[in-house]
Design a protein that fits this description.
The protein is mainly alpha-helical and about 240 residues long. About 75% of the residues lie in helices and about 0% in strands. It has helices spanning about 1-10, 15-40, 45-75, 85-90, 95-125, 135-160, 165-185, 190-200, 210-235. The relative contact order is 0.14.
């Protein structure tokens, strides 16, 4: 497993994925800061008002798309030049290959969340918000990262299923709007993209009840295990289309 993870990092060594990981959070941050700046007469709740603005586009749209891009990118080399044939012929199990990709994506998403929180703190300093920094936002960011694992497991499976780089990203975009509908229908705890909205408290900063909180953690784990198991099973049982 350790060698598989190292191999995944080597593939990304000279890539530009880091630039993409930085640009989208910064873009959503700029949009949120602009909204906050022009609506300060209405947004009177300090750090929490700022969170509603900077996290809206980021957590609801940019982060899911970023996850899809990242997953497609880490699977891109395998989908080119019949590389799957060589990989599956190597003495490494498909489970290790998939889990190594999953771990790398999860680390990248954790770095993205850390960048976003740094930008959020910078924005609060820039706007001279006097209230103490809300510690609960760190919990929201961590929950968002945890929810991103469900989406990552799903998107990795799709990226390994489709040779096209754009197809899994398009599916993710459709799922974003489906997730928004599920959230508005009060069914967000049963759909991975809605769980990201709930986890990051994007549309509502109300504290989750004990039941909702437990269900959030459990459902994410169920989705992670389900998607990972399905993808590994498919890799083991289905022939790779390499032409």
């Amino acid at each position: 497993m350790k060698q598989s993870i190292s191999a995944e990092w080597l593939k990304l060594r000279h890539s530009r994925i880091g630039l993409v990981l930085a640009v989208l959070p910064i873009l959503s941050w700029l949009i949120g800061c602009a909204n906050y700046y022009f609506n300060q007469d209405v947004l009177q709740n300090g750090w929490h008002s700022l969170w509603t603005q900077v996290s809206l586009f980021y957590g609801e749209f940019f982060l899911p798309i970023l996850i899809a891009i990242c997953c497609s990118y880490v699977c891109r080399l395998e989908q080119q030049n019949r590389n799957w044939n060589m990989i599956l012929a190597s003495p490494v199990t498909v489970g290790c290959i998939f889990l190594a990709k999953m771990i790398v994506v999860s680390i990248l998403m954790l770095a993205v969340q850390a960048l976003f929180m740094g930008l959020y703190l910078l924005a609060g300093t820039f706007f001279s918000i006097q209230e103490p920094f809300p510690i609960e936002t760190l919990g929201w960011a961590f929950r968002g990262w945890y929810a991103s694992l469900s989406i990552s497991a799903l998107q990795l499976g799709l990226s390994l299923r489709f040779r096209s780089f754009a197809t899994p990203i398009g599916i993710s975009l459709c799922a974003v709007f489906t997730g928004l509908g599920m959230y508005l229908a009060k069914l967000g705890l049963f759909f991975p993209f809605s769980l990201l909205t709930i986890g990051m408290s994007v549309l509502s900063q109300d504290k989750l009840t004990a039941v909702q909180s437990n269900l959030f953690w459990v459902m994410n784990m169920v989705f992670i295990i389900t998607f990972v198991s399905m993808s590994i099973h498919r890799l083991k049982t289905k022939d790779v289309i390499s032409s």
